[in-house]
C-alpha cells in the first residue's frame, strides 16, 4: 500500500513536471489529482525539490536500463553506431513520451536557481547514458592521415550540436518536438553521409589543395 501510494504520487508528478516544468508545477494540483492530503505528500517527499529529484532519477534509471541494452546491440562501425544510438534514443522517447518531455524540460530550459545543483549532477549522468565511447567503436576504416580520435570527436560533436539545436528550437512546443524526431533522425543520417563521403567532389578536392 505504501509503495502504491508513493508510485501514484510519482506518476502524477511526472505528468505535471513534464508538462509544466519545475517552477510552474503546483504541488496542490498533484495532491488534488492523487486524492491525498498535503501531509501525505510531504510524508513521502520532504519538499517539491525532493519530489522533482526523485522523478528525475527514476527517469534517468529508465534511460540507463534501456540504453544499456541498446548499446550492447549496436554495430561497431562509427557511422552505423552513431545512427543506431540515435535511433535507440528515439525509440525510447517515443515509448516514454512523458520522460522525454521531463528530461528535455529539465536539461534544456533555463534552470531555476533552486534546482541548479541537482540538474548539473544529473545532466552529467544523462550525457553518460546517451553517449558512445571511443573504445567501443571500430575506427579501422578511417583513411591514412586522419587521427581516429579527432574523427570520432568530429562526428559526435556534429550530432551533439544538431541535437542541441533541435531541442532549443522545439522545447517550447507542448510535445517538446517529439513528433519531429523521425525526420530529425533522417537529417542526422544526411549529415553523417556528408561527413563519411566528403563534401567536395574529387575533382574540386584536387583543385583546392592547401
From TrEMBL:
Presence of keyword Secreted: no
DNA-binding region, residue intervals: 26-45
GO MF term set: DNA-binding transcription factor activity; transcription cis-regulatory region binding
Stretches assigned to the HTH tetR-type domain: 3-63
Record-linked InterPro entries: DNA-bd_HTH_TetR-type_CS (IPR023772), Homeodomain-like_sf (IPR009057), HTH-type_TetR-like_transc_reg (IPR050109), HTH_TetR (IPR001647), Tet_transcr_reg_TetR-rel_C_sf (IPR036271)
Keywords, ordered alphabetically: DNA-binding
Name this polypeptide is given: TetR/AcrR family transcriptional regulator
